[in-house]
Amino acid sequence: MKKGIQAWLDERFGLSGITDFMTKKSVPLHKHTVWYYTGSAILLFFAIQIVTGFMLVLYYKPTLEMANESVGRIMTEIPLGWIIRSVHSWSASFMIVFVFVHLLSIWIAKSYRSPRELTWMSGVLLLFISLFFGFTGYLLPWDDLSFSATKVGTDIPRAIPVVGAWVTNLLRGGEDVTGDTLTRFFGIHVCMLPVFIFILLAIHIYLVQKLGMSLPLDVEGKQEKVKEIPFWPNFVFREMIVWFLLVGILFSIAIFFPPSLEKAADVMAPAPEGIKPEWYFLFLFQTLKIFPAHVLFVSGETLAVLLMVLAIVLFFFLPFFDTKPAGTKGKVITILAYVFILYALVMSVWSLL
Amino acid sequence: MIKKRPSFFLVALLFLLLLAWISSPFCLAQLDAKPAVTKDLQDKDKPEKIVAAPRDAREKTGIWVFAVWMWISVFVIVFFLRLKIKEVDRLYGLRFYSTRKN
Amino acid sequence: MKLRYSLFTRRQFLSGLIGGWVGAFLASLVYPIVKFIFPPYKEPDEVILPLADYQDMPPNSVKNFAWGSKLGLMKKNDNGIYIAFVGVCTHLDCNVSYINEQRKFFCACHDGWYDENGINIGGPPPAPLRRLTLVIAGEEMIVKKESPEEAS
Fold first, then answer.
1. Cβ A233–B63 below 8 Å, yes or no?
2. pLDDT tens digits for A39-66?
3. CA distances (Å), C89 to each of A60, A203, C70, C113, C123, in order?
4. How far does C39 lie from chain A, in Å, by closest CA?
5. Least confident residue range of A23-27, A249-253, B86-90, C105-109
6. Which residues of chain B have pLDDT under 70?
């Protein structure tokens, strides 16, 4: 009967092309194959975000008056609401961890070299969308900490000359962080970003399938042919093992370390002690802190933000800079990846001390 | 004498037991946390913080049961998937897939 | 009964085992998801109203009160006795109103009529309006769910 249904659907959708492709697509096996698992791990956590997000949005009220209270209601009145919220919160962090691991593995293995430049660039955009998901989601409980963190976070673009104030105004829906900011962030988090991420994901995944799996340089150079296994079923079953282990870890952490909820933000109160953004922004936060108030005639903050923007632009166009991966420039770019890891770790830990 | 490597599953099991032993006081404390408020509190009585926790003993046992069931499922599914992977790898080696008509 | 040939191959057995257990695990997730999506609706066990709000009602009139999230109707009869109804039409859940001159409850949605005691007398409503038990204790009116005998 299963074959009957498959044939019926295939007559209409013509999807056998996709299933054929999945069996023909092959994944190379070598000592760096483990990094190939990071992509689908990101998709797993994203799928969990969608499901838990759908559930939370049934009860969350995105207004200044009701946001905090509705999250409190989810945690206390709705059956198992606290677990759903906890899974959503932890899965966000897990997803961003894997996005960074995925990105670093591509950077170090130089998988962005021709013809995969667009895959890299769509991937960088996906990174920013993921971080923006996290940033907008962080405000939604509307407690003192998230309110203050959003105030700081949306103030940073102001340091960019010419367009800065305009960007801040766009993010906040006005001069200050208000109920309008909350509603705006909710719409972005739930409506706009999902549309953008789906478009970019489609492009990214299509390119990966079209261009095939890339080989790291040290493997490519070898004489003997690299052993390959079919994507379906061999590689997918291996991925499934990874998924189940990750789900087990995620649910256990979510059940035993759920986030709590502080009381609703007081717009007039001073910033709470120990204010800090989510962990994935800590290193940027600390970088801003170490810049002096003024450097020559330029404000320290402006300089720091401009340097960050420059770094992001260079980062986005990385495949076009790394034209000779095996040469000195290529080696420097690889070392830069490790420097970035070290920098981010040191800055993050420093910001917590 | 042939030195036998300890089985992967034995090592995994021992690691998990160690992890469970170390983390259990924290986990139990979390599940015993006071859940929070009833609706009738006035504004000034609203608590500073709402701690996420199961609302009653039934929810608490339900969560433990689910956690145990989940980990048993993970191990069983991984065990069978490993067998399945050995099988499909064997089939691939026999060129079973290249001659199949889809 | 001994079978000559196996019902399925070893490969199918393994695939079935994996699929079955994965299915069982996912099914165990359905329960918490469904519980979350359909939270229990609790009608209040009792609602306490201040007598002062209802003391000055003219006879043969009706005043609203909140019965949980539903409409409650407090009626003062000609003889000064109060009765409480759930003001929800038994046909399709619209809120009803009381027409003093006609001494009838009216549901505008499909032209349903109830008499002054809430008995359905015209239109589609299949049953009388739900009565609630009312106890006046000092300065308070305590409205409770109807007792099981009254409910049937």
1. no
2. 999 999 999 999 999 999 999 999 999 9
3. 31, 54, 11, 9, 11
4. 6
5. A23-27
6. 1-6, 8-9, 32-47, 97-102
Going A209 to A124 to A138 to A167, the CA torsion angle's sign is: negative
Q: Using CB atoms, which residue from B66, B73, B80 is nearest to C17?
A: B80
DSSP-derived 3-state class of residue C109: coil
Domain count along chain B: 1
Selecting from B73, B84, B89 the residue whose C-beta is nearest the C-beta of A229 gives: B89
Torsion of CA A174, A180, A183, A184, to 10 degrees: -10
B16 domain-assigned: no
- Which tens digits make up the pLDDT trace of B51-67? 888 888 888 999 999 99
B79 within a domain of the structure (yes/no): yes
Pairing of strands C120-122, C112-115: antiparallel
Give pLDDT, residue B47: 66
User: For A270-280, what is the mean pLDDT?
Assistant: 82
Q: What residue has token string 């009792």?
A: C46
What is the extent of the structural domain holding B93? 56-102
- ipTM value for the complex: 0.86
Task: Tell me how close the Cα of C29 comes to any Cα of chain A, in angstroms.
Answer: 11
Alpha helices for A57-116 (secondary structure H): 67-76, 81-109
- Residue C152: which pLDDT band, with cuts at 50, 70 and 90? very low
In three-state secondary structure terms, B5 is: coil
Average pLDDT (A218-232) is: 81
Residue B5 pLDDT: 66
Among A243, A23, A237, A239, residue whose Cα is nearest residue B80: A237
Of A283, A217, A243, A232, the closest CA to residue A31 belongs to A217
The pTM is what?
0.86
**Can you tell me the distance from the alpha carbon of A174 to that of A62, in angstroms, rounded to the nearest whole number?**
17
In a domain, B10, yes or no: no
Least confident of A154-158, A326-330, B89-93, C60-64: A326-330
Residue A55: which of A74, A73, A77 has the closest Cα?
A74
Under 8 Å CB-to-CB from A153, ≥6 apart: which residues? Answer: A135, A277, A281
Nearest CB to C28; choose among B69, B81, B87: B69
Residue C47 to residues A45, C43, C86, C133, Cα–Cα distance (Å): 46, 10, 12, 11
Pairing, β B49-50 against β A298-299: unpaired
Say if B74 falls within a structural domain. yes
Is A46 within 8 Å of A121 (Cβ atoms)? Answer: no
